[in-house]
């Protein structure tokens, strides 16, 4: 029947089953060997009467055993196959197998290999040669034809490559081989990703004597790629792409890693329904962003989901221009003196050799700077002006400082962020009614938002901007009277910035303040490198050796023997000899990534051809040949038959058997035969769903954490509890199991003595049913450790609370919370394992709140607090999990605030004390009573 997952290689042999009735008839007429007995002679003589004797028939159970054995042999000879696969069309003069082994095939490469193996095996059974070619290999690699064994060896030696396919060149080579093999079958195992020139390549391949085509391609592309990772002023801007045709929304998490592989930042990218592009920003301080070495998408094990970063995302090249002649005797009056001092620590400074702007500006632009600083330059020469405008439009950052020349030059619409009034404004002079103005708070939307305003800075002269409706949006820094101090504007891909004061300390003392350095540093971070990220301009023309390569599964590996040096330049292609990765050395590297900013993922369409096409799916071969199992079962039955014959012949007994014993033993043999031939373990299995989880939860002590639904919080919670678990194993006799993430709305909570709950206002508010389950857990002896992680987020004043604290209040409002107090100095928590005066985490300063003691005033009879039980609730704001969190190598993931290594040690010790307090309860409290008890007993 077609619905049975069983097929036979020689079905005609099954006609042999018709012989079973004949075998049954023969077995019934053939008696077994008679049992020999010795009788006394007199008894024989007494029965001397002769009668006609008939042979004893074979027992029914022995006949059935032999019939079953014959049926098994017949079925085995019929070549039975369970869950048979469809035989693939691999006939003809040859089989041409063309396989995509690019980066898009890395995720399910094993399935593709299994599918190709079936094709090659079928071709080998038909005795046809095999041509096998891979679309992401060396151009001169041998493609055959081979016999089936050699083709399998080449298939198993192949691996996915982190490069795109080269279908036109490979298909042309295969077509050339097929010229001498007319009537061959062509099998195309594609990755499902369309590329340029596919249609012409398929026409070339399939027009060359192809008798049949086997087409294998994924129905949908589940790939997600990372196309851009730009270090902008407020964070790293990320862009991810996916293939079209997926109407469902999706989320992916991107992680940033340093050069040691440690994860230091996260961001979530969300694809809207039907959208193929998602963006997000890693909003972390630029000091951390400078440590980024690579960014990868979680769960995407392919090269397109990884981007390596070079110095172009960190240090910038800055050009300096000034019309004032340098005075060697008075360097402090030079317009560029304070700018050089401010930029030298974190930028490469370049200056022209000519003082003429018509020559100086091209000289600077030829060195491809990320930023150009102009100190009091009024009119820009016409012959170089357009080139400077184009440089800004293509991503350059132009920073200009005011002065007498700029004030007299008037408006420069193309290269100034705002329109200027003619002349300058003087403050605090003898003929002025105004006084020098201080700097006010920096606007929240500008690049200086997180800097403290320089209270010591004042301005006595400035150039004024014409008031326009968008002047507020363009103001990055302002004076106390509202006039702009620094203005900025996005122009094309670049940025225009204007300081409305001079770069020397004549109009303002800003250039000699520390804020001046930080402001210029933020603007440099805002800029984008225009040239190659290498140490000097001369190295741009040299080749860079491979340093770290991106493998097909997205990991960073040492260079392969096939990798060759790379010459940096525009529009570099990813090839077999120049795979994606880092090129250079430890002193400087160049990032060569797989996907470009304009890259897209498109589905590969099956070519429309007149040749017969058979479509197959990528899958493992799950068919099982039953011939060996049936032969083994027949041998077991043959052994049972032999034992039964020996038993009936009296080999195993010296005494004659009664008929009843024979029947009983036969029943036992039949039962044994049934046990060997068929067993149904499901009938004896009384397991219930969830038993394995419960057994794993209670087999070892495990610390649990609440799954908030926020990926960053959940990963930090798990890493933190893993770090605490390691510390417990190292310092105590306790060996906890792996931390467990629990969904408080449905998971069983009673398995865990302690549940860590990080409070995040971005997480959804728990339902009333979930809060009721937490309340029941606390009432039944469990403890919940709430961590708001907002020690430095609360403002000044009683009414200034963080969103995390507000969310905690909403949760506690639905719980039966006992009276709370900060952990006193004599509480059992302070001495359950380590002696601790406080309980810091990643932050320090927040107290640890526990249930208040009922008799807190009786100090004489209370040497240790809370002697009869364990507090069901603990509250902190110090971010315990952030201090405990470690990576796979045991290195800390997050810095402490302040950066004190001992603070992390104290945080881990606090975690040990909490666990000992949870697991021992009043035992630890009773230890301090031992001297008093011994004294009362007279010992």
UniProtKB/TrEMBL annotation:
Keywords: Membrane, Transmembrane, Transmembrane helix. Residues 702-919 form the DUF4159 domain. SUPFAM superfamilies: Class I glutamine amidotransferase-like. Residues 6-80 form the Aerotolerance regulator N-terminal domain. The chain crosses the membrane at residues 6-27, 60-78, 629-652, 659-679. Gene3D superfamilies: 3.40.50.880, Domain of unknown function DUF4159 (3.40.50.12140). This is DUF4159 domain-containing protein. It comes from Mesorhizobium sangaii.
């Amino acid at each position: 029947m077609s619905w049975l997952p069983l097929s036979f290689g020689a079905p005609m042999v099954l006609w042999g089953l018709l012989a079973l009735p004949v075998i049954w008839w023969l077995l019934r007429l053939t008696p077994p060997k008679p049992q020999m007995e010795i009788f006394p002679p007199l008894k024989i003589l007494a029965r001397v009467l002769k009668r006609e004797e008939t042979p004893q028939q074979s027992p029914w159970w022995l006949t059935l055993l032999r019939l079953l054995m014959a049926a098994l042999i017949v079925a085995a000879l019929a070549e039975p196959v369970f869950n048979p696969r469809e035989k693939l069309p691999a006939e003809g003069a040859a089989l041409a197998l063309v396989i995509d082994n690019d980066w898009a095939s890395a995720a399910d490469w094993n399935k593709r290999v299994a599918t190709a193996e079936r094709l090659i095996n079928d071709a080998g059974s038909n005795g046809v040669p095999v041509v096998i070619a891979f679309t992401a290999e060396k151009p001169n690699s041998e493609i055959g034809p081979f016999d089936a064994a050699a083709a399998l060896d080449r298939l198993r030696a192949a691996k996915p490559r982190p490069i795109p396919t080269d279908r036109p060149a490979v298909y042309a080579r295969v077509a050339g081989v097929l010229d001498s093999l007319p009537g061959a079958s062509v099998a195309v195992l594609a990755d499902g990703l369309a590329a340029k020139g596919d249609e012409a390549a398929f026409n070339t391949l399939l027009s060359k004597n192809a008798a049949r085509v086997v087409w294998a391609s994924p129905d949908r592309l589940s790939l997600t790629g990372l196309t851009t990772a730009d270090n902008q002023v407020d964070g790293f801007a990320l862009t991810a792409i996916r293939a079209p045709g997926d109407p469902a929304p999706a989320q992916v998490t991107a992680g940033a890693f340093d050069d040691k592989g440690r994860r230091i930042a996260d961001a979530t990218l969300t694809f809207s329904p039907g959208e193929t592009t998602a963006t997000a920003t890693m909003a972390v301080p630029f000091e951390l962003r400078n440590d980024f070495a690579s960014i990868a998408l979680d769960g995407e094990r392919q090269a397109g989901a990884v981007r390596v970063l070079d110095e172009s995302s960190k240090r910038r090249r800055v050009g300096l221009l000034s019309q004032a002649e340098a005075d060697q005797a008075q360097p402090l009056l030079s317009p560029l003196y304070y700018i050089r001092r401010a930029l030298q620590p974190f930028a490469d400074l370049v200056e022209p050799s000519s003082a003429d702007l018509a020559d100086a500006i091209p000289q600077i632009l030829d060195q491809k700077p990320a930023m150009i600083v102009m100190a009091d330059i009024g009119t820009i020469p016409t012959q170089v002006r357009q080139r400077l405008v184009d440089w800004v439009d293509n991503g350059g950052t132009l920073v200009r400082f005011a002065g007498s020349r700029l004030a007299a030059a008037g408006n420069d619409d193309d290269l100034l962020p705002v329109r200027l009034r003619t002349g300058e404004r003087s403050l605090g002079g003898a003929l002025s009614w105004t006084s020098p103005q201080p700097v006010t708070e920096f606007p929240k939307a500008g690049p200086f938002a997180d800097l403290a305003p320089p209270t010591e800075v004042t301005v006595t002269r400035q150039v004024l901007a014409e008031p326009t409706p968008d002047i507020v949006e363009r103001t990055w820094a302002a004076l106390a009277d509202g006039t702009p101090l620094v203005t900025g504007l996005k122009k094309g891909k670049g940025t225009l910035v204007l300081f409305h004061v001079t770069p020397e300390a004549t109009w303002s003392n800003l250039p000699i303040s520390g804020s001046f350095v930080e402001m210029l540093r933020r603007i440099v971070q805002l800029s984008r490198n225009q040239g190659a990220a290498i140490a000097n301009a001369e190295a741009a023309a040299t080749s860079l050796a491979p340093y770290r390569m991106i493998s097909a599964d997205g990991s960073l590996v040492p260079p392969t023997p096939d990798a060759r040096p790379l010459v940096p330049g525009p529009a570099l292609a990813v090839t077999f000899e120049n795979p994606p990765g880092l090129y250079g050395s430890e002193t400087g590297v160049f990032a060569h990534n797989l996907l470009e900013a304009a890259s897209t993922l498109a589905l590969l369409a099956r070519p429309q051809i007149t040749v017969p096409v058979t479509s197959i799916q990528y899958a493992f071969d799950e068919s099982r040949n039953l011939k060996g199992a049936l032969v083994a079962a027949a041998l077991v039955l043959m052994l049972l038959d032999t034992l039964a014959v020996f038993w009936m012949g009296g080999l195993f007994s010296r005494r004659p058997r009664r008929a009843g014993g024979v029947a009983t033993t036969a029943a036992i043999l039949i039962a044994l035969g049934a046990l060997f031939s068929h067993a149904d373990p499901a009938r004896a299995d009384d397991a219930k769903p969830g038993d394995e989880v419960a057994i794993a939860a209670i087999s070892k002590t495990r610390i649990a954490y609440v799954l908030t639904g926020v990926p960053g919080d959940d990963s930090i919670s798990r890493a933190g509890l893993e770090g605490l678990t390691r510390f417990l194993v190292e310092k105590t006799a306790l060996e906890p199991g792996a931390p467990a993430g629990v969904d408080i709305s449905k998971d069983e909570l009673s398995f865990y003595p302690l549940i860590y709950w990080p409070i995040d206002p971005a997480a959804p508010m728990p339902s009333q049913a979930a809060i009721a389950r937490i309340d029941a857990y606390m009432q039944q002896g469990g403890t919940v450790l709430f961590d708001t992680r907002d020690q430095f987020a609360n403002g000044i004043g009683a009414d200034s609370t963080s969103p995390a604290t507000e969310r905690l209040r909403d949760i506690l409002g639905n719980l039966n919370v006992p009276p709370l107090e900060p952990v006193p100095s004599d509480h059992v928590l302070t001495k359950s394992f380590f002696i601790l005066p406080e309980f810091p985490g990643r932050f320090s300063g927040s107290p640890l709140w526990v249930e208040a003691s009922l008799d807190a005033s009786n100090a004489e009879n209370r040497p240790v607090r809370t002697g009869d039980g364990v507090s069901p609730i603990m509250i902190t704001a110090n971010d315990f999990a952030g201090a405990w969190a470690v990576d796979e190598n045991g290195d800390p993931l997050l810095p402490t605030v302040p950066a004190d290594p001992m603070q992390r040690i104290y945080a881990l010790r606090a975690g040990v004390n909490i666990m000992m307090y949870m697991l021992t309860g009043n035992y630890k409290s009773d230890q301090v009573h031992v001297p008093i008890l011994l004294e009362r007993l007279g010992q």
